[in-house]
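// run 5 | inverse folding | seed 20
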């Protein structure tokens, strides 16, 4: 019997699927993070502190930790619900978040928050 008939994949196929998952994840996260508020915060912190290496290390560690939370939560959710339902839930959450942020932006444009008086 071949290994295919036993249900196991060839080592080359396993490496290929690992590479596809890695490249897809890297590209998706890299593009999603470009120009977002996290990158802008790192830019400002680096400019203000004059310590780009420390800002890079801190921002990298923070992204790793937040990604770990997402990976662990995703793994758990994959065990408790079907993939199609998980995709719909994620899509619904993204749409809801977009609508909420859009509403906040419109409310801010219509009635800007009052400025606070000086503390002293």
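// decoded
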């Amino acid at each position: 019997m071949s290994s295919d008939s036993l249900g196991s994949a060839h080592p080359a196929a396993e490496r290929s699927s690992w590479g596809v998952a890695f490249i897809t994840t890297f590209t998706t996260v890299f593009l999603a993070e470009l120009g977002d508020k996290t990158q802008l915060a790192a830019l400002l912190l680096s400019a203000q502190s004059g310590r780009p290496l420390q800002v890079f290390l801190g921002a990298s560690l923070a992204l790793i930790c937040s990604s770990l939370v997402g990976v662990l939560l995703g793994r758990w959710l994959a065990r408790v619900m079907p993939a199609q339902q998980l995709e719909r839930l994620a899509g619904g959450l993204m749409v809801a978040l977009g609508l909420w942020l859009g509403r906040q932006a419109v409310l801010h444009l219509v009635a800007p928050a009052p400025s606070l008086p000086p503390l002293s």
